[in-house]
Amino acid sequence: MKQHKTIERLIIYRLLLENEIQAGVRHIFSHQIAEKTGNTAAQVRRDLMKVGVAGHAKMGYDVAELISGIQTITESKNGISFVVIGAGNLGKAILNYFSKLFPHFVAVACFDIDPDKINHMISGVYCYPLEKFSKVVDKKHIHLGIIAVPPQGAQEAANLMIQGNIKGIVNFSSTPIKVPKNVFIENMDIRITLEKVAYFASTNL
Amino acid sequence: MKQHKTIERLIIYRLLLENEIQAGVRHIFSHQIAEKTGNTAAQVRRDLMKVGVAGHAKMGYDVAELISGIQTITESKNGISFVVIGAGNLGKAILNYFSKLFPHFVAVACFDIDPDKINHMISGVYCYPLEKFSKVVDKKHIHLGIIAVPPQGAQEAANLMIQGNIKGIVNFSSTPIKVPKNVFIENMDIRITLEKVAYFASTNL
């Protein structure tokens, strides 16, 4: 299942279902999932059919079964290991955020050019010099990288990741970067988002 | 100019141009902007025409003039003031990130339910109890809010913002929330993004 949008929806369903099960919900109907995630019930049923879990006409879907079914598709069994280039404020925030909120994500190393950070623990993760990038990710079998550097260093960080055989990149720098087609990239530009929302907030008054 | 996509592209151009001018670039052609932002040159020229700045056939656009032209459309003169609900790891990371990297964004208050945080400074910003939300944002004329609470508190935080006349919301919680049509919302789900990229990274091996 390679479709970008389907995978994204399945992940969103799973996060919803994890919240529901914590709240004591045991069964759920497709229209309820649809309503809470902004999809149509037909879309939800089509997506869940791909997961191979069938709903019961009167009870709906078994929430635990559904979570487990989606997990087999979207989640690796041993957690998701990743590295971060950039151990400044943003990099530290990302490392803290994931280690505390989502133990399923495991940061295994960070990289920086600052001598004060190199060879020290940054937010619980060892910081290596940039030059060691390929060696470290190869040894630790990492294929997921986060870019948390200022804009002017973003493409260089991406190039290091590509050379290091990283296959998925989340780019938090406020600048677009180029990657080859076999590398999957998502841009998380907090600044662009905030400026855009601020613009529409001011025109909505 | 209310078009969502145009505004987003203009903000992206401006961030690029701000980097270029720092690097000493004084003039730029539409095809250069296009290449660096992943648009077509024709699209860039159409967008910049709306800004009212004309390019020179031989020199291209004056970068400083272009930044200023885009700013008059996308940027408020006195900085962008916002509040944050949730002063945990994520909220603190957001407050730190913006105050250090983008002084143009001004966090004026944060809100939490934790007695250890209320009435203290959190990352340089005063933390109020949730009950004071409407009063504080009304007094400070804030219309932009960031939600940085766990999923189960997200809709309640959104409801407070809607009651408090917030018109633009950035939702960092890992759950969808509902807002009326006159409120602009963007979801920044770091977790969904990371899970999606991790999935595609693992299938790209």
- CATH second-level architecture of the largest domain in chain A: 3-Layer(aba) Sandwich
**Sheet with the most strands of chain A?**
7 strands, mixed
Q: What pair of chains forms the biggest interface?
A: A-B, 66 and 66 residues
CATH class wording of the largest domain in chain A: Alpha Beta
Structural features, described:
Two copies of one chain form a homodimer. Chain A has 205 residues and is of the alpha/beta class. Chain A has two domains: 71 residues, Winged helix-like DNA-binding domain superfamily/Winged helix DNA-binding domain (Arc Repressor Mutant, subunit A), CATH 1.10.10; 114 residues, Rossmann fold, CATH 3.40.50. In chain A, 46% of the residues lie in helices and 18% in strands. Chain A has eight helices and nine strands. In chain A, the strands form two sheets. Chain A has a seven-stranded mixed beta sheet with strand order 5-6-4-3-7-8-9, with helices on both faces. The first copy, chain A, has a two-stranded antiparallel sheet with strand order 1-2. The longest helix of chain A has 19 residues. Chain A starts with a helix and ends with a helix. The model of chain A has no long low-confidence stretch (mean pLDDT 88).
